[in-house]
Amino acid sequence: MKTIIEPFRIKSVEPIKMNSIEDRKKILDKSYYNLFQVRSNDVIIDLLTDSGTGAMSSDQWAGIMRGDESYAGSNSYLFFKDTVQDIFGYKYILPTHQGRAAERILFSTLCKKGDIVPSNTHFDTTRANILFQGAEPIDLIDDEYKNTQSIFPFKGNMSIKKLKELLDNTEIAKVPLIMLTITNNSGGGQPVSLQNIMDVSKLAKEYNVPLYIDACRFAENAYFIKKREAEYKDWSIKEIVNKIFSYADGCTMSAKKDAIVNIGGFLCTNNEVVAEKNKNLLILTEGFPTYGGLAGRDLEAIGIGLNEAMDIDYLNYRIKSIEYLGNKLLEQNVPILQPTGGHAIYIDASLFLSHIPKEQFPGQVLACELYLQGGIRCSEIGSLMFGGIDEDGKEFFSNNELVRLAMPRRTYTQSHVDYVIEIIIEVYKNRKNLSGLKITKQSKYLRHFTAQLEKV
Ligand code: F0G
Predict the structure, then answer these.
(1) pLDDT given at position 1
(2) Domain of 111?
(3) Ligand 1 neighbour 408 (Cβ under 6 A)
(4) What is the pLDDT at residue 408?
(5) Helices (runs of H) and strands (runs of E) counted in the chain
């Protein structure tokens, strides 16, 4: 069997409003070439994020109806807690409204001013929450993994050499925890191997530093371990997941990814003292420990979704459909980050539009052109997002100019993917006709959300 089909039937549909290239030209002008300013109604295929955009199953919707909204001792909470414990294995579990709430609580408990938090690559919200505590987030990836064209099975791995160097040369009291993000979203959705998780854990234990996993895409990561790390090829996804988390002291989770729900998250730890502090912070801003800012029905949907995300037929379809998109682009020489990762395709815009300098935002030019030609919305992960103007008024840039096409889970079909391929290839053929953008208005922080741009 070569053709991988969607392992589900569609019971409820949401119409997509079609529009024309003339409509989209006006919309782009009105939005100042910023796709965050475009209404979702004006988007044909929305690949801005895979977070909270997945389609829930009939079982999850049934769970929504079953949701027990009691303030204390809710059945939905007990179901959620038992499920999370069964999969992740931790003693103390707190629901939170999403991933970043878990991060804020954990870093408030563990970090102080002047601390250092190493990771393979921190996601933006992790980074921001560490900085907010006055601590410093540090990314430790081997240099050969940073090249978008180099091919390695586990490009998300943390550099053990760099981690050891850092731990040897830092006062250990200043390293309150080590984070490991699986899969590595900011590094291209690349997986982390079980060997690497074990190696990081061994070092963490040696230096007596707790290890926490940013677990957002844990099931996708486990699938890559099954497929690419020989000793686990006969293991079930759940067995691999159990093993992954047994090497860490806790985890933060955005359920909007691999629990396939629209909102939710959680924070786990085995440390009783940390758990107590976390709980008190949770009550202060999120809610009672049995709901943490969510409704009982949300907890029910998360519990069901976590198991659905580990289903091997689902994961086969999910990862193969991303690979299919990537391979079709590679066949036409479209430069993408290789190998294809778990939840998204990242186009290398500095190679795609090599005639447009960093100063003119090649990633944003490409993202806007994909919208113009096909109504496809994706996000620039380059100098518009990570560049800016420093204290001395000097402009700085991102290392990479990427465009991320993030695939919502179970939301689009194969023909949607074929349409996306067709549009990207068309834009690639006409790439030489594209020209740069410049910023006309921006804010000091997170400028990509609100910046206004115009054609150079
Ligand atoms: N960690 C990782 C690796 C993430 O990708 C995200 C969110 C978070 C933490 C934060 O979770 O949104 O529930 O607060 N990533 C989304 C994205 C926003 O588009 O990649 P959250």
Answers:
(1) 62
(2) 58-308
(3) no
(4) 98
(5) 17, 16
For residue 212, give the amino acid letter.
Y
Q: Same structural domain for residues 171 and 197?
A: yes
Say which residue the tokens 């060997």 belong to. Answer: 195
Ligand 1 centre from 277 Cα, in Å?
A: 24
Question: Where a domain ends, among 265, 287, 308?
Answer: 308
Residues 302 and 318 in one domain: no
The answer to whether residue 10 is domain-embedded is no
- Which residues, other chains included, contact 394 with Cβ-Cβ below 8 Å and sequence gap of 6+? none
Q: Is the dihedral of CA 293, 298, 304, 306 positive or negative?
A: negative
CATH code where residue 180 lies: 3.40.640.10
**440 and 340 together in one domain:** yes
Q: Which residues pair with 345 in a beta bridge?
A: 405
pLDDT tens sequence across 336-378: 999 999 999 999 999 999 999 999 999 999 999 999 999 999 9
Distance from the CA of 418 to the center of ligand 1, in angstroms? 27
Question: Are 46 and 136 contained in the same domain?
Answer: no
| Whether residue 184 has its Cβ less than 6 Å from ligand 1 | no
Tell me: pLDDT of 445 over 80: no
| Boundary (domain end) residue, out of 275, 308, 341 | 308
Query: Could you give the angle at the alpha carbon of 296 between the alpha carbons of 294 and 300, nearest 5°?
Result: 105
The helix/strand/coil state of 157 is coil
Let me know: does 335 contact 352? Beta carbons within 8 Å: yes
Give, for ligand 1, the residue of 256, 346, 378 to mutate: max count of ligand atoms closer than 8 Å to Cβ: 256
Burial of 350 (0-12, 13-18, 19+ CB in 10 A): buried
**Residue spans of alpha helices (H) in 133-188:** 143-146, 160-168
- 155 with 133, same domain: the answer is yes
* Count of domains observed in the chain: 2
User: Does the CB atom of residue 148 touch ligand 1 within 6 A?
Assistant: no
CA 375 vs CA 13, 19, 26, 46, 372: distances in Å: 19, 8, 12, 8, 6
Instruction: Tell me whether residue 8 is in a domain.
Output: no
Contacts of residue 261, Cβ cutoff 8 Å, sequence gap at least 6:
52, 54, 56, 60, 255, 298, 301, 302, 305
Q: Which CATH number fits the domain that encloses residue 386? A: 3.90.1150.10
- d(CA 179, CA 125) in angstroms, rounded, equals 13
User: What's the rounded Cα separation, in Å, for the pair 197 and 244?
Assistant: 7
Mean pLDDT of 89-104: 97
pTM over 0.85: yes
Same domain for 45 and 72? no
9 found inside a domain:
no
Residue 1 within a domain? no
Q: Whose CA is nearest to atom 5 of ligand 1?
A: 185
